[in-house]
Design a protein that fits this description.
alpha/beta; 2 domains; 5 helices; 7 strands
């Protein structure tokens, strides 16, 4: 656009009629930007609510109903609660496990649920399986923990009696002589609390595997695109009217007449 055309466009934009158009366009743009931001914030709010809901502890009977033989991917990292009692005959030490750089073992104990099924609970870490804190608690217990999948490494590794190289429900079932729920639960809290207990193992809680609110996300960008579209239309319309319908450079007269 030439300097003269630019001046013509600016003069036209300063007229009362175009100032009104500019005001209306500005209101539309601001409204669209705010509506887009509202939809964006709503998207984030929905995601936070879904993640918070996924992080709520559920009874393990609800997460793994009767007949479940494999751990669904969507429940990995799900906080769960278990009510029952530990089986003193169902405990192993998972060897070669570190905590804060210190070598030791994990203490894994079977917990008998009210429906009779057996769940593997990782009660924590000890420097040695012979420590007093490894003794299986007796009596009713309520356990809060995080559901984790079976470990797939060291599948064929042999170990001393009373120990395992990795945690897998099928191997535990052979050791304990009965089916075990798939996966295992990393204990985060136990009631009643124990004076002597294994050191807790950090657990990974699932927070990412939630449905994404795509509709609100798309609405946000639609509003922002509308704001951009309104600006483009305003500028284009202004330039077209400033140029006028007859804005054509005349040809030079033929001097050879």
């Amino acid at each position: 656009m030439s300097r003269e055309a630019s001046h013509s466009t600016l003069r036209l934009a300063a007229t009362p009629r175009w100032l009104v158009f500019a005001g209306v366009t500005l209101i539309l743009v601001i409204a669209a930007v705010l509506l887009g931001r509202w939809q964006w914030d709503k998207t984030q709010t929905i995601l936070q609510a879904e993640r918070a809901s996924a992080s709520q502890a559920l009874p393990i009977e609800q997460v793994l109903p009767s007949g479940t033989t494999a751990l669904p991917d969507e429940v990995i990292g799900q906080p769960v609660t278990l009510i029952g009692s530990y089986d003193v005959t169902k405990q192993v030490a998972v060897v070669n496990r570190e905590l804060n750089g210190n070598p030791g073992v994990w203490i894994l104990t079977g917990l008998r649920l009210a429906d009779g099924r057996l769940a593997a609970v990782l009660r924590g870490w000890l420097s040695s399986a012979d420590e007093g804190a490894s003794i299986v608690p007796t009596g009713p217990v309520t356990v809060s923990g995080v559901l984790q999948p079976d470990e797939s490494f060291y599948a064929d590794a042999s170990s001393a009696p009373g120990t395992v190289a990795s945690i897998a429900s099928d191997r535990l079932a052979k050791l304990w002589g009965e089916p075990v729920l798939p996966g295992y639960v990393v204990l985060t809290m136990e009631l009643p609390p124990r004076n002597a207990a294994p050191a807790p193992i950090p657990a990974t809680v699932q927070t990412g595997n939630v449905p994404f609110p795509l509709q609100n996300f798309v609405y946000a960008f639609q509003w922002w695109l509308f704001a951009l579209f309104a600006l483009v239309i305003f500028v284009r319309w202004l330039r077209m009217e400033a140029q006028g319908p007859g804005d054509v450079t005349p040809e030079a007269p033929d001097s050879a007449a």
